[in-house]
Structure formats: structure tokens, C-alpha cells
Amino acid sequence: MKNTFGESVSVTIFGESHGIMIGAVLDGLASGIEVDEDFIASQMDLRKSVGALSTARREADKVRIISGVFNGKTTGTPITFIIENNDTRSKDYGELAYKARPGHADYTAQMKYHGFQDFRGGGHFSGRITAGLVASGAVVIKALRKKGIYIGTHILTCAGVRDRDFNNLTDDINTLNSLDFAVLDENSKSAMTEKIEQAKRNGDSVGGTLETVVTGFPAGIGEPWFDTIEGVLAHILFSVPAVKGVEFGDGFGITEKFGSTANDAYCTENGKVCTKTNHNGGVLGGITNGMPIVFRTAVKPTPSIYKEQETIDLNTMQETTLQIKGRHDPAIVHRARVVIDSVTALVLCDQLALRYGTDWLAE
Amino acid sequence: MKNTFGESVSVTIFGESHGIMIGAVLDGLASGIEVDEDFIASQMDLRKSVGALSTARREADKVRIISGVFNGKTTGTPITFIIENNDTRSKDYGELAYKARPGHADYTAQMKYHGFQDFRGGGHFSGRITAGLVASGAVVIKALRKKGIYIGTHILTCAGVRDRDFNNLTDDINTLNSLDFAVLDENSKSAMTEKIEQAKRNGDSVGGTLETVVTGFPAGIGEPWFDTIEGVLAHILFSVPAVKGVEFGDGFGITEKFGSTANDAYCTENGKVCTKTNHNGGVLGGITNGMPIVFRTAVKPTPSIYKEQETIDLNTMQETTLQIKGRHDPAIVHRARVVIDSVTALVLCDQLALRYGTDWLAE
Amino acid sequence: MKNTFGESVSVTIFGESHGIMIGAVLDGLASGIEVDEDFIASQMDLRKSVGALSTARREADKVRIISGVFNGKTTGTPITFIIENNDTRSKDYGELAYKARPGHADYTAQMKYHGFQDFRGGGHFSGRITAGLVASGAVVIKALRKKGIYIGTHILTCAGVRDRDFNNLTDDINTLNSLDFAVLDENSKSAMTEKIEQAKRNGDSVGGTLETVVTGFPAGIGEPWFDTIEGVLAHILFSVPAVKGVEFGDGFGITEKFGSTANDAYCTENGKVCTKTNHNGGVLGGITNGMPIVFRTAVKPTPSIYKEQETIDLNTMQETTLQIKGRHDPAIVHRARVVIDSVTALVLCDQLALRYGTDWLAE
Amino acid sequence: MKNTFGESVSVTIFGESHGIMIGAVLDGLASGIEVDEDFIASQMDLRKSVGALSTARREADKVRIISGVFNGKTTGTPITFIIENNDTRSKDYGELAYKARPGHADYTAQMKYHGFQDFRGGGHFSGRITAGLVASGAVVIKALRKKGIYIGTHILTCAGVRDRDFNNLTDDINTLNSLDFAVLDENSKSAMTEKIEQAKRNGDSVGGTLETVVTGFPAGIGEPWFDTIEGVLAHILFSVPAVKGVEFGDGFGITEKFGSTANDAYCTENGKVCTKTNHNGGVLGGITNGMPIVFRTAVKPTPSIYKEQETIDLNTMQETTLQIKGRHDPAIVHRARVVIDSVTALVLCDQLALRYGTDWLAE
Q1: What does the alpha-carbon distance between residue B295 and residue B292 come to, in Å, rounded to a whole number?
Q2: Degrees, nearest 5: CA angle B290-B292-B298
Q3: Residue, of A221 and C88, whose pLDDT is higher
Q4: SS3 sequence of chain D
Q5: Looking at chain B, which subunits does it touch, using at least 3 CB pairs closer than 8 Å as the criterion?
Q6: SS3 A303
Q7: For a FRET experiment, which of A71, A164, B102, D147 has its CA 20 to 30 Å from that of C131?
Q8: Helix C333-356 vs helix C229-237: angle between axes, to the nearest 10 degrees?
């Protein structure tokens, strides 16, 4: 299916950057789950992000819930979020109607939609569409926490600066979820933002790597083939704009180890089975083993840059050059963080509902 | 769905390592596609792999097609492949009935299936189950070639040795598809096999990285959200046993670039739009741009090693140690290659059928 | 999936009778299809229906398209329809918060949603939710007509009155699509409405049978198993509130025939293969044969009646009696007509897209 | 998806009437469920059916389970059933290679598969393919009974003879499940078989109606839209060859009632909520209400008859006549019974797994 993801718990997203509204339909969630609109708003704020680092576009991003919530709780029927598009200066994008921005989806959209796509501001490809995922994610992140399942993501690397590794997971996740620029070491923030601002001054942009940890997730969830936990997470993670890589546990690094150092030895701790290391990131044979789920995603540099670029004219399919105007972000890795937390929560809820039934999350 | 993947063209796999038969049902393929049983057999041979490097287990791996093929061509109805399990020395695995092998799915299977799983030889988690994917893949690989779409994978790195990069894609793919140890530089083979054999002598194992290229694939295929080409490929790639990471184009490496160096400038060549570089691996906004699709997968070291390991007893959930006996591979990265080609072909066929209709592949 | 239906072309519906908004997301439709908002409005009017026969509730039912349409044409990305709920006199429904209306979903909703459902006006179970299906259907009905595919439904029986059979299909479909009370014989309307009004005067309600015909639909569409044309149509037809039976061709009547009279003999007409009779309703082995697709749906009497009924209190699960107040329809069969046309069009579009590819409908 | 049905519990079927093997893959079933091969065999016998009434074709129909069962219990991974085709007198079908049998799928198969289909004995369209459904169904029917859920189907009408109605459901279901010709009144059998044999003597065939009852099924299962219990059951019921109609509760008969007589009044019995009547067949708003699920299916007369018929030549698409030789059934309604029980059980298991989780059935 195209703009719908998930089996028992699913999300459908819609909208265009400069259309009337964007939003999402979150379906399949158990009835009786508390919906905290303040928390939704605070998650939406994390997506908008910080100061000079990000887009100058100002959206109130006020989420309206138009169905599926009654007396502050989920009804069990589809929850629909809508967000109006207010601040859409379409005039800035005039030239983009026909010039493909390198690194963006303009050309591939043209090949798929034959010129009927809403090109303004990237249309349906805009990172703005992730707002629906963040609103949906906020509901399930809250519900997962009540079940003792916590998700935290930090910017592991950005523009060559590396944050410190996770240490005390509980503390670190707490810290991250209160930050708008999610790094574990305060110094990382200044070093990274400096690099980002420098790129901006050069009319350029930078990328980064996000590292995510999920704690408290039960063992025995996932499938041996196809719907492996890794596979379903990766499937949706590649929808987060600019993601070009996903790895679990030691990921690509594990290929340089020997079996004897890559295998996670089992032990027991307070009567609970665990592993001494977590090179496999909490997943073996596609199924969770009760250890923290750990993965990293690669976020490419924002393709919108001020520097002149070589491209083609989509009407004539002839070569031309392009100088992008308008506002754009010199980095999006820090904004992608909350989107990754959100889609992770959505996938994990779906897996839990498939395994334990539709009502488990609310019990 | 659990052991079924794909929408218009789908594959269902079944079987256990030491059960009666394993196999697959390949459904949704256009009618009238030639089925070349010799090619299927040769692809199956690639999975079995080479000499001293791999498992001592000897399976004829004779694939029988029991439905869906009539007069040498696909009927359009489900094609079922079955493969008998002959050489199953279950006695070697006695101890594994209750001791979890680190790095394997024994413990997670126990948590999911409550002890009812067929534990012998890894049961349904065995790499042997990929045989059904390879048989299915062989049919579609052949069909894609008739449409000018070619897939090639080489071992980019193994045990610290790095193969040369792709050069002339057409020639390189041709070469790779005739090799049982798929490297572009002959010297890589000897260097890698030496490392593998050394690991074996140490009772240990090694991993590696596979790099895949798809040429001739049309632009405009894939979805902007969820069913991105990257997402659907990654989804199934994480089913290939031991895969812990997937990256497209420059992947994690792209995070260290600037936007100005990461963006692929457009140009025209013989009237056809292309890009001067391919840092995005042929996919932008989830949709193909007509450039080669390029991705890499990380394959962890085989978890079965001879060295003694710390683990738990699945009956008592108490700590114990394990010394794995029986035959096992010091590396599987070279065997994973044909599986990756196969699942790639299956996913791409599905995407083409969704886009162009069910009959396109046979036209 | 729960509130989403369809594979290549899908629809997601949301909302509650007395919530803020209801609507639908129509996804997967080809880009470049004209969207005629006047036609959508006129289809919505058919759903509201006529004079004294139907609910006194007055909704403007103004459909807003908030995504997926650009310059009057589909973009190929999700089309979202929203409709505000204005005239919701919730006070009329006070008692229904705890008394289950017989024939309605109040009790089953309680068992599924544990009391968290929005009970007002039937909540998500309300017939009002079909408005999203009608809006979505209007877009595809128009597109199908451009392809020469026409859908027409008449009230075959209502309260014991039987309309005449289809005669000249082209003319009859034309006629039906201009009527708000869809009967082929004008006299049927007066006879049926008289019966409906009489039932209303008795504080009671009546049901009826709808007969649908689809012309111009190509042969060779559908699957031999599971996704038979009959199966996928029936699947969604049973979502139309109050439908309790679906039959194709001669349906239950065919069971009284002999094979020799039930089989449709083949012949050729103007070089085109057809059948002399159409007892099988245009579908054989789950696949269309190019003859008109014919089916009938049974619509039960509206469960909301004024007469006192025996029921239970949902809080205490004890017996009680119920006297429903507020406005309700003495019949809905005439209003169900446009919903059936709409879901039929949605299913057929999906089947065509699966078979011929995503772009065929706009070509 | 094409030959796969179900979400959490799914079945995939494959094979052709005169191919090497037919079979099914049953996936998603909880681990630890007892698999009774004798019961499977006895269910398979019901499909073959009785004496002179049915096809002269003799198949041992020995079901082999080649995966997914270990030590007599389900492993939780795919269960694969294969059945060899032995007695296939393909020579009888020579002429059918090019003449379309009226009432059969020969012509529609040609339009869908372009002549590549295996035409012998109906190929993949053959009723024989239901054997895989019956084998799969046998496993889940047994498992449902352990949960107190019982399914029974009788031949309500055949060739104008009507069986008595259900009376004591528990006793009636018990009786039916021990009969090879499933009627509640012994006299119905002789009257029906007489009519069937008479039709056979005339070179003709007859149809009938099956009525199914499910007891012990919990309330609160199903969805308000799309995946209504009625919709998902009807979806698969129309796959049972020759089914042309499905109705729930009073079905088409309910359209002739008033709301006051069609509504099922609620009451309590031994502290349990129930309804005084069951005109709605146990489903309201798509969701079960705890009353018996009741539905009827219309089975058309076997299309294979000895009488000469008008048809077309599939090679030339010109008119011709056809005299079918070989063995065929003068009725299949009695054989369809066990198929309907089987698919009903498969759908209900899937719904229970979606609702209560994957392990519930084995708990």
C-alpha cells in the first residue's frame, strides 16, 4: 500500500508542503489510551527545531485531532490529525516548477507523476509531511512509556563531530527527550552547531548520523523472515527524508569482527536472561532478545543549498543551472531525530499488537 | 504477513533445516515467462559455495517445481519449489536442543515459540531456508535480464580485505555472475579465502560486506513514503541471515559530505537524463532515477564457532557453557551473495508489476 | 488493516457521527485524473436523499479536498476529503450512552472498545461515515466513465414492492444516475415511498434489495482464489451499513437451476466473445468474462425505530427497555445506492490498477 | 495478494488439477497446537465424498506435512501440506485445450493468462485445489474446538429439496460432522440424492444451498468497516468454487421484514447477554455479538455436464459446440460443505489472532 504503513496499528499520511492541510490517520490503536495534546505539541516543537540552524519557515504547526479521541482517550477507531499550512511563500519556488533540484525528488516525481505532482516546496515529498508521523508517534510514545518501553535518539555524528556514546541508558534517554538538539555531551552541541552554521555561511549543508536506543522492549517479538524487527524498522526508517543507511547493533562495524568477538554471550542478571555485550543490537534471527534495540541511521546533507548547481529543465529535459532561493536548512539531522523516534514507536506498537493482541497496549 | 513478502509478486517460504522438505511459493508472476531449470540449478550451486570455505553439509539441493510451470513457461499461477532435506545428521545437534548458541536465534526462538520450535540445525531460522528464495529468484533474475535489467553483487570487504570498486558495470556484472566467489579483483579471492581459512583454523569465523548494483532499471519506480525502493529492499535484505546493515549510494559515508558534494548533478547523455555522480545510489525521494541502484549490506561473522562460549540452558534459563560441534561455515558472506541477488530481483519485479501491471514482465 | 481497503488504489475512512470532522484518504490513484467537485457534490446529495423519507438531520455535507489535487487534477499522491459535522444534536442521544439499540452496533462496540467508543449517534459506526466513501467514489466513477465503464444501481425491491428488471443497460444506467430515488419503473417509486411512509407512521422501518450492473468492464480481471472479483466486491459491500447478503448473477436463484440452464453458452457478436445469458453475473472462476457484472445486495430495515424495544443497559448489562427518540430514517435502501456504486467503483479501480498498472486509468 | 489469504493467520494455496502436486502453506498459527493427522485424513475424505454422486476420479489424497510440525505439534512456523496428483487421465481432456466449457473458467483463464495456463482438468481453477484448504482447515477446526468454538454446515436445499432447520445447535453440529452427506433430516438425504442421480441420468447437474453455524465464538471480534466479520468471511467464501451468493442471518429474507421484527431484542440468560432472535446472524456493525454466527452460501450446479453445449474455440475465438467427456460430478454442494467449514475456521482463527494475539489459540 502506498501512504499507509503497519498491519495491526497503521498510519496513513497525506498532504503537500504548500497544500491546504497535511496530516495523518493513526488506526488500530487500542481504545482507552490517554491522548496528551500538550505532549503532541511538544513533540511537534522538536521537529521544528532550533534557532538559526533550521528553516526560516514559521508554522504554528497546531495539530487538530478531528476523530478517534473522546473524553481525552482513544476510542479504538481512526485518530485523524490535521495541520494547516499557513506560511507558504509559493512565489519563492517559481523556478523550481521546471528545474530539478539535485539531491531532491523533483526529477523522480516527474518520472512517476508525469508533471501532475504539486511541485511547490517539494509537495508530497516535503519533510513537512513528517509532521503527521510525529503527531501519531507522540500518542504511541506516551503509551509505550506506560508499558516501560522508552525510546531515545542522539546525534551520534554531525559534520565530522562525534557525540559521546550511550552510557546509562535510562538517564541518557531522559536527557535526550528534553533537548531540542539531541546530544549526550553538551560540547557536541556547540561543536556541531558551529559546523552547521559554517556550512550555512558557505551556502552549503551537512549531514549526520543518528543513534537510537529502545529499552524495556520484551523478548520474542518479530519474525524470522521478512517481518524481522530489523526489516520492518528499516522499511519505515528509509521513509524519513534523507536517510540513506540503517544498521543494527554494531552494523557495518560487525563485519570486521570475528565470530568469537561478535557473538553476544548470554548470562543471567537478577534471574533475567541477558547478554554481556550487545553487538547484535537486541535482535537475533529477526526477533528481539530483550536487550536494548540499538540502531543507527545515516542522514544525508540537506540537498537544498544556495550554491549554483548543474541540473536539467523538467519541461525540456535539457541541461541548465539552478540557483535555489528561499529558506532552507543547512542541516536536518537534528530535526529528523523526533521523526525517527516516532516511526520507531509506531512500528514497535504494531509489532506488539500483532503479538499480544489489539488491547494489550491499553491494559 | 509472516513468511510471505511482496504485493503483486510475492514469495512464501517454508521448511526447517532438518525437516522433510523446504521450499517456496512464488506467486503473481506474469504467465508466459520461460523457466530455465538449469539456471535455477546453477544459482542453487552458488548458494552452496566453495571448497573448504563452507559447510561440510552436502545437499543435492535438487529443486523440484511442482506447480505453476507448464510446457516450460510460467502459467501465471503459483510456482512451488520443493527441495528435500537428505543429509541431516541430527545427532550432531543434540546439545543444542537446550543450549542457546550465542549470535544465533535459539534464545529468541524459545521466547517466541515457547519450546515448540524445531531446534534441529536452527530449524526454520536456518540459512538453508534461503534456498527457496534462490530458486524463486532464479526465475525472476532471468526474466529481468530479458528486460535489460541486470543485478550483480561482489564481496566488497571480507575479514579486512577489500575488493576493487565497480568499474565497467556491464562487464563487472557479467564477471560476477560467473564466479562462485564473487570478487572483481582476482587477488581479493586469495587474500580473503586465506583469512577465512585462518579463522577456521582458529575455530572462529569472519564477516564481510556485499555491494550490489542493478543496471537498466527504469526511472519513476517506488513510493515517496513507506514503500520507498530503499525501504522495501532493506525490509527483505534484513531477512538474509546475518545481515546487520543496509546502505544506499554512499550510505553512511554520505553523512560526512557537504550538500554540494553529496548532490548528484544532472546532465544528459545521448538524450537521456542521468547524473554525473551517483552518491544517492539511484534513488531519490524513494523513487528510482534511472541511474544504477547501488547498495551495500553488512554480513556478520557466522555465529557458529568451535570456540567455547558462555550461554544459558533454555530449559533452566541458567548459565552454562557451550562447545558447538558439527559442521559449520567460517564465513557465509560469499554464500549470501546469491541470496541478496535473489531477493533484490524479487522486490524489483514486484515494484515493476505494481507500476506497469502484472503482464509487463512477460511482454 | 482496519479502516483501509484496497491494494493499489486504497481508501482510508475516519470520523464519528458527532465528532469534529469525518472524511477519507483516497490513495494510489493515477496522476492527471480530472477531479470534478460539482460531481462530488451531486453524488453527496444522492446520499442525503429525499424529502420525508429520510433523516431530518441536515448537513451541508460540503466536501473539502485538502490534499492530492493540484490544478483540478489528481497529483498521484493521497487525496484527502474532509467534511465538517455541524448539525449534531447530541442531547437527543443521551439515553443511548448506556442502552444498546437492538439491530445497531452499540453492544458489539461496547464489547470491542470497552466503553471508550464515541457512542453519540453511532460514532464511527454511523452511516454518516459512508460520506467519505461517496466522495472518494465520485472521483473514480467519473474516471471509469472516461474508460467506458459504467455503474448503475436500482432498488430492485423495497417493502414488498418490486421494480422492473434491467432492460437496455446503457439507457437504464443513465436514467438511474439522474434519479434521487433509483428505480427503473416510475410507478415503483410511488409504491415504495408509500410503503416507507406507512412504516414511518407506524414508528417502524423497512428494508430492500439493490441490484447493480457494471458495463464496459474488461475480461480477464480478478483472481482464481481469494481475490475473486466476487470476493473483493463482497468484502467491501458488507461494510455498507445494513447489508446482510450479496449475490452475483442469479445468486441464490441459480441453486434451483440445472447445469444445462445455469451455464451461459458462449457466442460471438461483432467479433467479440460474449454469452447468450448472464446467469453468472459476468464472473467465472473469480475472473471477469467481459459481460456486465451483476450483483444484488440485501439491505435490512433501519434498526432505529420509534417502537419500544427490549434491550440491555451497557453499564449494568441488565435487561431494560428502550424508546428511541431523535430523527431517523424509515428506510435507507435508497440512500445506500450511491454508497454501493462508490465502493464498487473503488474496488474495480483497484483491480484495474493491479492488472494494468498504476497509470492506466489516466491514460 | 493473489493466492494468500489472511493477516495474522494466513493460507497460501498452489497446484493444478493435473500437475505434480497440490498443497497449501498455513502460516501464523500459534506454536504448540496439536496436529491430528487422522482428523486431517477424515476431513479430506469428506471432500471426496460419496458413492455414485460424485466424481469417478480416485485420489488417495494422502496429505503429507513437510514443515511446521514437530513432535506432533505446530512449531509456529509455516505448515506445508502437499498432496500428490496420481490419477490424472489427461487424455480425457484433450478437446478442452481449446474449447471453453460454459460455466467454467476456461475462457476467463484464457483472457487472464493468455493461453499459458495449465488447462488440463481446470488447472489451478480446479475444485481439487480446495484440498489444501481442507487440510489447513482441519488443523484449525480442531484447535477451535478446544476453545469451545464449533462449526457445522448442512445442505439446506439441493435440487428443490429442503432440509430441516437447525434445532439444537450442539447436537446438530455433532451430527453433521459425522456425516458424509450433511443433512439434519435423514429423509433429506434420500430425496436429494435421488434428484442428483436423476440429473446425472439426464447428463445434467444440480446446485444447492449450504447453511453454516458457528457456536461459542466470542463477542467483540471484527471491524466496523471493511474487515467486518461478514466481509472477510464472504471474501473467502466466494473462493469456494461455484459459490454465487453469501448471506448472513436472515440475509435476503430480512429485506422483507419491518425493523420491529428484524431487530434482535437483547436479554440476559444466566448472566450472559444474548438476543431473543438471531436475524442478524451473530454480527452487528461488522462485529460479533456472541450469538451463533449464521450464514448461507449458494452453490451453483456443476458446470460440467454431458449435454452438448454452445461455446467458442479459444484458439480461433469462433463459435463451436462442445460435448464434455470424462468423469464429473452431478452435484458438488455436498462436497463443498467441508471446504466451507475449513475456510470459515481459517478466517475466524485469523480474526481471533488479530484480536487476542498470536498465542491465544494455543493457550
Answers
A1: 10
A2: 135
A3: A221
A4: CCCEECCCCEEEEECCCCCCEEEEEEECCCCCCECCHHHHHHHHHHHHCCHHHCCCCCCCCCEEEEECEECCEECCCCEEEEEECCCCCHHHHHHHHCECCCCCCHHHHHHHHCCCCCCHHHHHHCHHHHHHHHHHHHHHHHHHHHCCCEEEEEEEEECCEECCCCCCHHHHHHHHCCCCCCCCCHHHHHHHHHHHHHHHHCCCCECEEEEEEEECCCCCCCCCCCCCHHHHHHHHHCCCCCEEEEEECCHHHHHHCEHHHHCCCEEEECCEEEECCCCCCCEECCEECCCCEEEEEEECCCCCCCCCEEEEECCCCEEEEECCCCCCCCCCHHHHHHHHHHHHHHHHHHHHHHHHCCCHHHC
A5: A, C, D
A6: coil
A7: A71
A8: 140
C-alpha cell at C23: 472524511
DSSP of C10-40? EEEEE--TTSSEEEEEEESPPTT-B--HHHH
Q: Is the Cα torsion angle C47, C50, C55, C57 positive or negative in sign?
A: positive
Chains A & B: contacts with CB separation below 8 Å: 370
DSSP state of B280: T
DSSP B185-231: SHHHHHHHHHHHHHHHHTT--B-EEEEEEEESPPSS-S-SSSS-HHH
- Nine cell digits for residue C318: 441488565
Mean pLDDT of D205-226: 98
Residue D56 dihedral angles phi and psi, to the nearest 5°: -75, -10
Average pLDDT over residues B105-129: 95
Q: How far apart are CA A117 and CA A99, in angstroms?
A: 14
Tell me the mean pLDDT in the region C193-210.
96
D304 to C223: CB separation less than 8 angstroms, yes or no: no
Stated as kind and residue range, the H or E segment containing C79 is: strand C79-84
For residue B267, count other CB atoms closer than 10 A to its CB. 14
Dihedral (Cα; D21, D22, D25, D31), 10-degree rounding: -80
Q: Are C31 and A117 in contact, with CB atoms under 8 Å apart?
A: yes
The C-alpha atoms of residue D227 and residue D5 are separated, in whole angstroms, by: 13
Cβ pair A23:C70 closer than 8 A:
no
CB–CB of A346/A29 below 8 Å? no
What mean pLDDT is reported for chain D? 94
Kindly list the strands in the beta sheet with A208-215, ordered across the sheet, starting from the edge strand earlier in the chain. A161-162, A150-158, A208-215, A293-299, A243-248, B243-248, B293-299, B208-215, B150-158, B161-162
CA distance D67 to chain A (A): 15
* Residues forming beta bridges with residue D246, ordered by sequence position: C246, D297
Residue D343, Cβ density class (10 Å: 0-12 exposed, 13-18 middle, ≥19 buried): buried
Contact list, A2 vs chain B (CB under 8 Å): 223, 225-227
**Rounded distance, CA C218 to CA C220, Å?**
7
d(C-alpha C60, C-alpha C96), whole Å: 25
Nearest CA in chain B to C9: B354
pLDDT tens-digit map of D229-270: 999 999 999 999 999 999 999 999 999 999 999 999 999 999
8 Å CB contact between B241 and B306: no
**Alpha carbon distances (Å) from A315 to A95, A319, B268, D48:** 12, 11, 14, 65
Interface test with A, best of C11, C31, C65, C75 (most A CBs within 10 A): C75
Residue A153 CA, chain-centre distance (Å), reads 10
Grid cell in block for residue B25: 511459493
For residue C314, give how far its alpha carbon lies from the nearest alpha carbon of chain A (Å).
16
Q: Are A326 and A231 in contact (CB under 8 A)?
A: no
Q: Which helix (H) or strand (E) holds B350?
A: helix B333-356
Q: State the pLDDT at residue B266.
A: 98
C145 C-beta neighbours (distance < 10 Å), count:
15
Q: Is the ipTM of this complex over 0.90?
A: yes
